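Entry:
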Amino acid sequence: MAADGALLPQHYAAAPVCAPSRASLLLGRSQGHANVRDNQFDKALENNLTLGSALQLAGYTTAAIGKWGLQGQIGKAPNWTAHPLNRGFDYYLGYIRHVDGHEHYPKEGLYRNPKEVYENRTNIASDLDKCYTADLWTAAAKKWIVDHKRSRDTDKPFFMYLAFGACHFPFHAPDDYIERQKNNYAQGWDELRRERFRTQRQLGVIPKDAKLAPRNEGVPDWESLSDTERRIAARGQQVYAAFLEHANDQLQRLVDFLEAEKQLDDTIVVLLSDNGAAVSGQPLGTLDLRRSAYIDKESTEHLAKYQYNLFRLC
């Protein structure tokens, strides 16, 4: 997609976390003017023009699939103030509450208990046995496109807002994707960041004369880590990469589907990432984000003991 399309290397998400990033995008406002900002979650998206409602006025049929977290806390489920159906979307399937987005197997609840997944205003989580949400979002997107094509609104153009969970903590990925990344990160983060920097210069993402910045304060030299610490860190990157690769494959599946349906030439695909990496997982990862952020850090010994469950793998 990148090779065949236009790169926007100056794109910058000014929001510090995920929900405010989505609010800025949906409202078409900079973070300083969006009503959801800073570290706010589950706050009602302003009742104003959104990407969805503006395109509805222009004659589009609209759908939102995936994460939301902008529903507001006034009114009980499923009648939240800023439910996607109240903010410019004709159809919705996904995680409405912010906390539900911290899970990628909603029925089993591998990280923190089972979660809720809504199709419009109906919670369908009880039917999602061993369902990985990135697969679900992609399947739902394809089904909605087919249904739209067969509907009485088939002559209308469509707009789909598709918000994947990758790569938001906790890191979940299918076993075969994790296995494919094995041993890919044993060289450590110092060498890896040099490799990525060179690649970014070659691709034109950063200027050719850019200089590699020093490591962030508090990040140790890879060579100073113990063998156990290196193993834990490499495992975390392995699973993160598997998580991202799987999401990338879902996007390719969707593009291939549009091509098979002879709709790709009439479709603009815009791929964005939000606020980027966070520091809340501590340097070597964590089994419990809240504990590491608000109570105490998990020891290297604890992480090493459970390293193959690190990031709640499955």
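Confidence is low (pLDDT under 50) at residues 310-314.
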